[in-house]
């Protein structure tokens, strides 16, 4: 069997104030999968995500990316392999132009000249934002800024794209456009979301985290139609939405 691109084993973590956020999480994601990470507020989802590229380091257990342990000595390479797109694009965009934001990461890896330009062009083209390359990010709409934020991560050519609430604050057209982009990418996706219809649309598999442990891992459709599971872990579908009525991804 192939090595998982993301391999989390027995991950436990307590914050310095003593709050235990994770209690032995196991999660295995294989190359090319699109997986939704679901769960109520306070479940530990953000804490888990912060371990995937070494912002937090495991208190117990282990995290590996394509067999490479997420440890202090490997952080530069781990952060190239695992790209995190934050919920607020303004946390990610801080340069005077779209071009400079997207080239920032690859330039820090030492890319220069034509190779750097090619990375930037390819990443912006993937998210449909190449025509905006010389625009200041603060002149863009929220949805456009989110797409540029995705491009800043794609320019690093990651193995895993981690998205934190990718559909939040998007109008319906921007939400659909982002979904089309995510489906088109040849990259493994882990999507943290409370938007359960979006999870069903994009991710064939879902993992439910609750009180610091994985309580379910299976097809998104099966999880969203398990009424007892949903109720027990404070997951609610929008009024009138029936997952059974949506074609399989």
Explain this structure:
The chain is α/β, with parallel strands linked by helices. The chain has a single domain, classed as Rossmann fold, CATH 3.40.50.300. Helices cover 34% and strands 24% of the residues. The strands form two sheets. The protein has a six-stranded mixed β-sheet, with helices on both faces. Strands 2-1-4-5 form a four-stranded antiparallel β-sheet, covered by helices on one side. β7, α6 and β8 form a beta-alpha-beta unit. It is globular, with a radius of gyration of 18 Å. The chain starts with 5 loop residues before the first strand and ends in a 17-residue tail after the last helix. The mean pLDDT is 93. InterPro entries: AAA+_ATPase, ABC_transporter-like_ATP-bd, ABC_transporter-like_CS, ABC_transpr_CbiO/EcfA_su, Co_trans_ATP-bd, ECF_ABC_transporter_ATP-bd, P-loop_NTPase.
Topology of this protein?
Blueprint: E1 6-14, E2 20-29, E3 34-38, H1 45-52, E4 60-65, E5 68-69, H2 75-81, E6 82-85, H3 98-108, H4 113-126, H5 142-154, E7 160-164, H6 172-184, E8 188-192, H7 196-202, E9 205-210, E10 213-219, H8 220-224, H9 227-232
Parallel strand pairs: 3-8, 3-9, 6-7, 7-8
Antiparallel strand pairs: 1-2, 1-4, 4-5, 9-10
